[in-house]
Amino acid sequence: MALGAGVLMLAAGCSDLADPRDYGGGAEGRVFAQCVTRTEKDNPSITREQAASMCTCLNERIAEGTEQPIANGTVGRSETQRALLRCAADLGIEAG
Questions:
Q1: Contact (CB, 8 A) for 87 and 58
Q2: Which of 23, 44, 51, 79 has its CA 20 to 30 A from that of 17?
């Protein structure tokens, strides 16, 4: 069991995925890290910092109610992508 956990830790250390601990940890950090990783993957020309800025923008807009990519408990992938691109445009980030 300890060997398996060590292998997982080593694999996580070698990963280029965003680390939830960099974004406060816990469930919120995990969700934010997923947003950053997916945004980077969808837009290979942007940096991790730019992806994080886009995700922060999206989170703020969801909190304000100006973006609503979640309907009936389901995240709309295409609506989320469009919302992130609107954030990128407002932030002056060339994405898409």
A1: yes
A2: 79
Q: What is the 3-state secondary structure (H, E, C) of the chain?
A: CHHHHHHHHHHHHHCCCCCHHHHCCHHHHHHHHHHHHHHHHHCCCCCHHHHHHHHHHHHHHHHHCCCCCEECCEECHHHHHHHHHHHHHHHCCCCC
Contact predicate 79/69, CB 8 Å: yes
Residue-wise pLDDT for 16-32, tens only, equals 778 888 888 888 888 88
Could you tell me what percent of the chain has a pLDDT over 70?
A: 84
Burial 8-33 (b: 16+ CB within 10 A, else e): eeeeeeeeeebebeebeeeeebbebb
Q: In degrees rounded to 5, what are phi and psi of residue 67?
A: -125, 140
Average pLDDT over the chain reads 82
What is the pLDDT at residue 15? Answer: 58
Query: Can you read off the two tokens belonging to residue 2?
Result: 């300890």
